[in-house]
Amino acid sequence: xxxxxxxxxxxxxxxxxxxxxxxxxxxxxxxxxxxxxxxxxxxxxxxxxxxxxxxxxxxxxxxxxxxxxxxxxxxxxxxxxxxxxxxxxxxxxxxxxxxxxxxxxxxxxxxxxxxxxxxxxxxxxxxxxxxxxxxxxxxxxxxxxxxxxxxxxxxxxxxxxxxxxxxxxxxxxxxxxxxxxxxxxxxxxxxxxxxxxxxxxxxxxxxxxxxxxxxxxxxxxxxxxxxxxxxxxxxxxxxxxxxxxxxxxxxxxxxxxxxxxxxxxxxxxxxxxxxxxxxxxxxxxxxxxxxxxxxxxxxxxxxxxxxxxxxxxxxxxxxxxxxxxxxxxxxxxxxxxxxxxxxxxxxxxxxxxxxxxxxxxxxxxxxxxxxxxxxxxxxxxxxxxxxxxxxxx
Length: 393
Known about the structure:
This protein has 393 residues and is α+β, with helices and mostly antiparallel strands. The protein has eleven helices and eight strands. The chain has helices at 4-17, 25-34, 56-65, 77-90, 93-105, 219-235, 244-255, 262-288, 297-320, 345-351, 362-373; strands at 110-113, 129-133, 136-143, 154-160, 171-177, 183-188, 197-208, 212-213. The chain has a four-stranded mixed β-sheet with strand order 1-4-5-8. Helix 4 runs antiparallel to helix 6, helix 8 (262-288) runs antiparallel to helix 9 and helix 9 (297-320) runs antiparallel to helix 10 (345-351). The radius of gyration is 22 Å and the shape is globular. The mean pLDDT is 92.
């Protein structure tokens, strides 16, 4: 097993062989992946060395001190946080070798084709069909709320392959090439004026069976790996103390004493403490990941992330008074990432409204926490054993 000293030596060797100041950014990232220093807990040959996950910090610290480029993780968060762990767990060796390296370096962006107009909170009710045709699957349907679809080369896709089975069965998981014929991406303009989300129409899209992840009909189980990782990726993203949204609100408070009131002060103090508790809980959750795949606990972190963002952004707008009503511009843009701290308070307030919807609605996540974390009785479900084709729609 690779230890901290060996990882530090390997990192210093990478920096000596590929000096960041004189090496092309993409060449450096490829060399880092090939050296096993991309995600050290992954297997050798797939960007890792089979080392403990916690030792990634040793590598990252040395690279940051040397001014080495990163892979712009916010831009490729879906690939890093959702697609990669699913490919690693369920992919064939050929799939892992083909997909993981350009995913990590950011050469190929990923998106997620899960939600549908009629299957959002009740994702298992999805109706996008995949029909076997020789060595291919022919896919028809519509997906929605697809972040980065306008940038993506690949998508993780779940589709119904057996409508005779109940809704949680008869689903299969695929990797879809977004450049294939029949894939149409349309922007969805949001309350912010931007269109970071999209709707995706799939018409006769042919996906080779070689791009299937997991067994036919076992897609719901595979999707749970993606969803659990997604919630950790959204709610457990590492931030420094007073980082993120609470940092912007605290900075406004310090810089603008004329805006202060006693009631706002009490609210800010309470939210600051809650944000710090959430940050430390995220640290603990990431430490637990060293023992294996994330479980349903990530749902709790994602719940808190959404609630705090909405309450903090609301406080910030109220603190700013009339200034909080201003907005920089409504021009339709299709951004590569969500920048909560780089825009004004009005943007943060509007964009935070989506936090309780994306990555699993808060209502669904409350059920997950109740049933899978706290062990409370499940809600009655009358459709659990009914064939999907017989469900009322």
